[in-house]
Amino acid sequence: MAELVPFAVPIESDKTLLVWELSSGPTAEALHHSLFTAFSQFGLLYSVRVFPNAAVAHPGFYAVIKFYSARAARRAQKACDRKQLFQKSPVKVRLGTRHKAVQHQALALNSSRCQELANYYFGFNGWSKRIIKLQELSDLEERENEDSMVPLPKQSLKFFCALEVMLPSYDCRSPGVGLVEKPVDKVEEESGKIAVEYRPSEDIIDVRCEEELHGLIQVHCSPWKQCGQEEEEYLSDFSLEEEEFRLPELD
Q: Going from the N-terminus, what domains does the chain have, and what CATH number goes with each?
């Protein structure tokens, strides 16, 4: 059965591995490299984070590893649990289980992450993209305000972009449109709109204005401040399957 891998930050519990009983000998940076090398053999990794054990526990580290694919995470858990991997003593690996009451909004991947994911599954030459239209809308809105004699709001920059992603091997393409606004005097108030629609084997004409795209692609709002939340792991929401995650206590 095929697995759907969305272009979104993986926050699902079945894509998250907790690894503990890591040796205290290597540094956190060295453990990060060893973990990345060992677990990336099973699939593309979104993140590897290494943390020191609590003060009441034996010296050592534990790690949180996120995959884009739940299937890859399951394979890694079965293959690596209670194995020595890169150290003399075995490590423990468990899939995280999120509490049912906890829900988090899915966050979109940034551009570099999207390209990394596309390259992994489609191949470097297996996909391409092209910009259909890029236009600054700030001047248009200012002229409209002047005509209607409405006081101008805070100055901001607004850009409209339409692009297309193509998969030649599958003879399909996906057009998309985005609208981003950036206040000049207050960056944290950024907001934006983004949407993508899949249309296989359909010729896309050169679009000249936003009105021509309105019937082709629907746009929904998405706050841009979410981009800074991608690295948040929501560790407090996870427990472990089969046994609780407890660091060994000192005798």
A: 13-105+231-240 (3.30.70.330), 111-227 (no CATH)
